[in-house]
């Protein structure tokens, strides 16, 4: 039973722009392609010792791009972990094999390998692979490149380039994965909110309208019998039937808007009136002070559900209702003798249980609500042959149950 408008259950959580994952993918892949194009230009102007070496370098660059694209697409997928490591190994071969064969300082797109190590090998091993890649690039350029250490295109320049390129590749790929994961998580939350709303609606319809419809049927039958002999009393019953119908309409509107509080005092009066009309002897003891709205609503709903089950499924003659304020807890019990006649069930649906009673979907819902407030709800046949529903609730619900129960 909801006790007030609840944004968390009646409206989907805010979601990111639907274009965000696409934009993140575009940014990540654009950076990868941009580094490829820049190295394509560097390769074009690089003074290779032989034309065949230049041709081999131009063949290596597309392979590096392809492997990096695969690493970006496969990043974060557990089923592609082995494939990612194989792609990283391929990049390592393409970066460091050409200098050994050409005896030239050209090392392809070394930033791909540095960034791929961070993406593939995990936090600790990845940073080790990143550092090894940067150190290897620096060593190759220091060995084969005749330029001074700090000159443009010298060893220091290539070291910085590998670091910057690797970090950008790593950061943008991580950014893309985070955006996609966030979008998927928020989509799942929105779907879960819809499911919770449907469940709330179904529970509230059961708890609110089940009792009201039973009361309407009972009042209408009684008025129909009284019209020929007691028209004055029949008019009174019809007047109460109209009031019950108006309350039912208000209940339907409340369910639709996700807002519904029940007054425990009004429910006690209503239950006594309906059960007395049905010929049930009601003994009610209400010894409690001012209860929090949530607690009062849950206790009133238990009272209403128990009365509904009695009217629908039993032939009870006596009913006892007890609501007690026991310090920091509130205990309510609803008992009736409807199971004495051959084990008639007092609950609505389910398989037979102990004592001839059956598990009630409505009582199961109420047990969930009681548990959400830190309490318990039990039901069953006691040694005297009476079916009893008891709810025990703390006056101060746990902090994580402070919101409305659905």
Question: Helices and strands in order, then pairings?
Answer:
Elements lengths: L6 H4 L9 H26 L5 H24 L6 H22 L7 H11 L2 H22 L10 H72 L4 H27 L6 H14 L3 E7 L5 H21 L4 E9 L2 E8 L24 H12 L3 E6 L5 E8 L12
Parallel strand pairs: 1-2
Antiparallel strand pairs: 2-3, 3-5, 4-5
Helix pairs in contact: 2-3, 2-7, 3-4, 3-5, 4-5, 5-6, 5-7, 6-7, 7-8, 7-10, 9-10, 10-11
Characteristics of this structure?
406 residues, alpha+beta, Heat Shock Protein 90, 2 domains, five-stranded mixed β-sheet, 5 strands
What does this structure look like?
- By secondary structure, the chain is α+β, with helices and mostly antiparallel strands.
- The protein has 2 domains: 20-188, no CATH class; 262-406, Histidine kinase-like ATPase, C-terminal domain (Heat Shock Protein 90), CATH 3.30.565.10.
- The protein is built from 11 helices and 5 strands; from the N terminus they run αααααααααβαββαββ.
- Strands 1-2-3-5-4 form a 5-stranded mixed β-sheet.
- A hairpin with a 5-residue loop joins strand 4 (376-381) and strand 5.
- Mean pLDDT is 78; it is low at 1-16, 341-359 and 402-406.
């Amino acid at each position: 039973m909801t006790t007030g408008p609840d944004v968390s259950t009646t409206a989907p959580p805010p979601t990111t722009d639907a274009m965000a994952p696409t934009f993140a993918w575009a940014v990540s892949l654009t950076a990868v392609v941009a580094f490829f194009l820049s190295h394509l230009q560097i390769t074009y102007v690089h003074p290779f010792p032989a034309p065949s070496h230049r041709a081999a370098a131009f063949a290596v660059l597309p392979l590096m791009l392809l492997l990096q694209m695969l690493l970006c697409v496969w990043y974060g997928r557990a089923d592609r972990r082995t494939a990612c490591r194989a792609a990283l190994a391929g990049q390592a071969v393409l970066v460091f094999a050409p200098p050994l064969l050409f005896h030239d300082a050209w090392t392809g797109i070394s930033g791909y390998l540095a960034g791929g190590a961070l993406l593939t090998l995990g936090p600790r091993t990845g940073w080790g692979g990143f550092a090894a890649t940067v150190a290897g690039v620096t060593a190759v350029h220091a060995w084969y490149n005749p330029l001074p250490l700090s000159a443009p295109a010298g060893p220091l320049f290539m070291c910085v380039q590998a670091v910057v390129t690797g970090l950008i590749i790593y950061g943008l790929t991580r950014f893309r994965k985070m955006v996609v994961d966030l979008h998927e998580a928020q989509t799942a939350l929105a779907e879960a909110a819809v499911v919770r709303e449907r469940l709330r609606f179904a529970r509230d319809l059961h708890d609110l309208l089940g009792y009201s419809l039973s009361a309407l049927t009972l009042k209408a039958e009684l008025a129909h019998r009284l019209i020929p002999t007691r028209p004055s009393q029949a008019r009174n019953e019809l007047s109460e039937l109209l009031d019950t119908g108006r309350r039912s309409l208000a209940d339907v509107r409340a369910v639709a808007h996700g807002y519904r509080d029940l007054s425990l005092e009004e429910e006690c009066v209503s239950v006594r009136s309906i059960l007395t009309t049905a010929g049930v002897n009601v003994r009610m003891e209400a010894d409690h002070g001012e209860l929090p709205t949530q607690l009062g609503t849950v206790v009133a709903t238990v009272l209403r559900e128990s009365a509904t089950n009695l009217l629908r499924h039993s032939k009870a003659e006596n009913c006892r209702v007890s609501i007690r304020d026991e310090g920091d807890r509130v205990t309510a019990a609803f008992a009736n003798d409807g199971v004495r006649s051959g084990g008639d069930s007092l609950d609505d649906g389910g398989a037979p249980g102990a004592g001839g009673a059956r598990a009630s979907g409505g009582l199961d819902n109420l047990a969930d609500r009681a548990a959400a407030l830190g309490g318990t709800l039990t039901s069953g046949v006691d040694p005297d042959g009476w079916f009893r529903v008891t709810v025990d609730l703390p006056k101060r619900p746990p902090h994580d149950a402070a919101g409305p129960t659905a």
